[in-house]
Amino acid sequence: MTLLTKTNLTSKLSDRERIAHIKADYWIPYKRAKEVLQTLEDLMDHPKTTRMPALLLCARTSNGKSHLLQKFFDAYRPVVTPETENLTIPVVYVQAPPKPVEKAFFVNILEALNAPYRVSSNEIALRYQVFKILRAVGTRILIIDEIHHILAGAYLNQRAFLNEIKGLANDLQIVIVGAGIRDALSAINTDRQISNRFEPAILPTWKLDGDYFRLLSSFEAMLPLHESSNLTKEDIAIKILGMSGGTIGEISTIIKKAAIMAIHTGKEHIDILY
């Protein structure tokens, strides 16, 4: 697929196509995200040991956590070896169930693996199936997003759920990557043995500094507008930061809405943010 430059986008696409481009998801490789991705790459290459490392990615809602994990996951899609037709699934990405229920957790993993299962199967049978498949497909990293959901259960349920996660790491010798809001730290600390394994990785909210201005420049470079918006101009940058609460998701939403308005009104640049 040919990548369109900004010049090509503004000159060759219709207004409707430019708006569709603005609304689409695209990746902006900012500094902290690249650091976390490098950590994930390093974990991917970690040899199997009796005590596997783990990572806990924490961020406020709408601050890029899931987008970052999806970026990493997309780089390690399932692969079929032509000679043997063996399927390899190096990274499995699942959501933690709304409550710490082991059966629901195993079902989520099987769904992510696109593996058939019996709804009537008990927790033990599903656990056996999950372990068997993950071994067979050579999984190296299991990502558990929204891991703070553990806190929605009673203390004993939380401990039992964490024991299952610990069992996956120990028995399969795979890396566990948990992700969630700040409450995820409290969720993992329910079990001291497992919390000691998790290295915390925080995605902080944005502030008025060089990284933030570089982020705005990257956003502007992606906008198919005919005129420059000068998003790094101090008054505009401060306005966006204040409206967004410092999260990248809200920063993106504000800029995209303003850019679409600029096309609709014919201004072709972002000048006023409401």
UniProtKB/TrEMBL annotation:
Top-level taxonomic group: Bacteria
Its protein name is TniB protein
Q: Which organism is it from?
A: Mucilaginibacter yixingensis
The cross-references to InterPro entries, in alphabetical order and at most eight, read: P-loop_NTPase (IPR027417), TniB (IPR008868)
